[in-house]
Design brief:
The protein is an alpha/beta fold. It has nine helices and twelve strands. The radius of gyration is 20 Å and the shape is globular.
């Protein structure tokens, strides 16, 4: 049994999590700090360094052979930089170089957070055993990643599979990304809630106007809430069908906060998919909920580091 470990970082707008992970995906040590998202770039990096200090200070660190980073995007793996939308202090920030410096020059693999969650679901979760899969995170935004021919397919910059910014409505609302009618503009949690409120949905006495509250109302049969989820499901179905038609995936895994809505989302989504995924080679496409939960980003970052390490070893032996 190989006793080497990899370090993993999961960087988002709310928290920066770190872990030491073994070759079976088990987390042996974890550390976390809140993301000072609205502070200067160096303050954010200090939080990353504090997380890494907890890991490097452990007696287990001597076994660490590589670092994987899953970061909110956009990321640029080819340049080693990150520019997370919700961390304005980081624009083209040289995260790979800075992490390498703190970890004694270990190899560092950077991927987007959607790709990291895909890696986790393929290694340990709902896409396990599938050679061609799309994994999606439907939450405050809509992200994703691809597994093709049994391997994670991050693309040259680490953003391949970013389904949230496929346009599914030609003359749709402008999206924050600059395009129109994107999947995210219709299917993200805040947009589900925005549409329900605009169409007359009334929150309960607690005043909760989140997508989770809309989902609860949809469960009790509120027609406006049901319609808002149906519209989100239609956008997701169109994006998933387009992806399946393009690259022949056989499973789509859906996670994130909106994915937790359960049948309120999955029932209209599976129905809508039938109207978009019509060609023979996409008709067998399954849609399943994610299994990995809150550790998906860390486990996926570790998977990327392990894959990189295996690829490096294979190249060295040629």
């Amino acid at each position: 049994m190989h006793t080497d470990l990899v370090a993993a970082l999961d960087i988002g707008g709310t928290k920066i999590a770190g872990a030491l992970v073994d070759g079976h995906g088990r987390i042996l040590l974890r550390a976390q700090r809140p993301t000072p998202a609205l502070e200067a770039g160096e303050s954010v990096m200090r939080a990353v360094e504090e997380v890494l200090a907890e890991l490097t200070g452990s007696p287990l660190w001597i076994r660490a052979t590589a670092v994987g980073i899953g970061s909110a995007g956009p990321v640029d793996a080819s340049a080693g930089t990150v520019s997370p939308v919700n961390v304005p202090g980081w624009r083209g920030f040289p995260l790979v170089e800075r992490v390498r410096a703190v970890t004694g020059g270990l190899p560092v693999e950077l991927i987007g957070d959607g790709v990291a969650i895909t890696a986790a679901e393929h290694w340990q979760g709902a896409a396990r055993g599938h050679d061609n899969a799309l994994c999606m995170v439907v939450s405050t935004g809509v992200g994703g990643g691809l597994v093709l021919d049994g391997r994670l397919h991050p693309g040259p910059t680490g953003n391949a599979g970013h389904i949230g910014h496929i346009s599914v409505e030609l003359d749709g609302d402008p999206c924050a990304c600059g395009s129109r009618g994107c999947v995210e503009r219709i299917a993200s949690g805040p947009n589900i809630a925005r549409r329900a409120l605009a169409n007359g949905w009334q929150p309960g006495p607690d005043g909760d106007t989140s997508a989770a509250a809309v989902a609860e109302a949809a469960r009790t049969g509120d027609p406006v809430a049901v319609a808002s989820f149906a519209r989100a499901a239609q956008a997701l179905a169109a994006g998933i069908a387009a992806t399946a038609t393009l690259v022949e995936i056989d499973v789509a895994v859906i996670g994130g906060g909106v994915g937790k809505a359960g049948d309120v989302l999955f029932t209209p989504l599976r129905a809508a998919l039938k109207t978009y995924a019509t060609l023979s080679f996409v008709q067998r496409l399954e849609i399943v909920p994610a299994q990995m939960g809150t550790d998906a980003g860390l486990v996926g970052a570790a998977a990327a580091a392990l894959t990189r390490r295996a690829d490096d070893a294979a190249e060295a032996s040629v």
